[in-house]
Amino acid sequence: MDRDTSCQLFALSFDASRPENLARFWAGLLGWETVDDPQDGITLLPGDDTGFRLRFLPSQEQKAGQNRMHFDLTSASAEDQRRTVDRALELGGQHIDIGQFPEEKHVVLADPEGNEFCVIEPGNNFLADCGFIGALACDGSQEVGYFWSKALGWPLVWDQDQETAIRSPHGGPKITWGGPPLAPRTGRDRVRFDLAPTAQGDLSTEVDRLLSLGAKRVDTGQDGPGGVTMTDPDGNEFSVLTPR
Description:
Elements lengths: L6 E10 L2 H12 L2 E4 L5 E4 L7 E6 L10 E5 L4 H13 L3 E2 L11 E4 L5 E4 L13 E6 L3 H11 L3 E5 L2 E5 L6 E4 L13 E7 L5 H11 L2 E2 L9 E5 L5 E5 L3
Parallel strand pairs: 1-4, 5-8, 9-12, 13-16
Antiparallel strand pairs: 1-13, 2-3, 3-4, 5-9, 6-7, 7-8, 10-11, 11-12, 14-15, 15-16
């Protein structure tokens, strides 16, 4: 981590009408351990080098429109890709059409609450050295890729034609942004980052640092003992959690 960075990507949080069901799907697909979450949700702990956990938090809001971020899962072979797709369908996933072309070799699916993800074909060079979760693919600008590189202290591993990608120095998935045009916003982000100040940081100092990088603090009615809600330069919501 960069010496000027005082936070880490603690979790990727999903709003869910049935957190237990959604956690069961992803635990079954990824093979991760399930633990209780302090905000009455469910947390999955990674069993690989992913570096951040998944949180499933209760919400009454229904999903509207396509998420701005989704997982790209990797495959070692065509048979391996089929096994992943079959397993996802057995767990309650479904095939969806988001406008992909028939000749494309990746498979587009959704989890039981409609959150999109892709199972990438074998031989993808960009994800060749990544694990099962190859990437968290995001709809976003070049500016937001630069923001998150500085916010997390993760180096840029791709910066071309307004497309950017960063990756932790410790490995794990890449986080990518596809450049313009950006999809229109459809309400509160159902999938978002949770940041945690490191041991040498504190909440107010970290919030000030992120503001200096281009984030904004917003009043969503969600602030409280759990932390502070902010947005990045593209307007994507994220939380800075209170140190525990």
